[in-house]
Fold:
Amino acid sequence: MIVRELVQQLRRQRYRVGQEAWLQMDIEAALTALGVGFERESRLSTRDRIDFLVDGGIGIEAKTRCSPRQIFRQLERYAEHDAVTSLILISGTATGLPGLINGRPLFYISTGRAAL
Structure:
């Protein structure tokens, strides 16, 4: 599955946002239902562990309560790794993120707008 198709599918889901663990469970359920291969808590380095690494190098990060600056810096680090070809951020945090980070496409899914 290419990243744009995955983003479209994930935007159709409903997510619980009270706790980050709930959001991650909902993402895992959605990926499983879609038949997408992934690894949870994928270790990119000793410092970096992304929430999901989907087959093909699509990294997915879930955030419920975090500053936009922290989110950007974390995604920026993830985008430095060869294992990551593109990134998807699923969050309720309003962000003004660019479309590319370190040459990797970045897609944003708002938990508040998902399933609308």
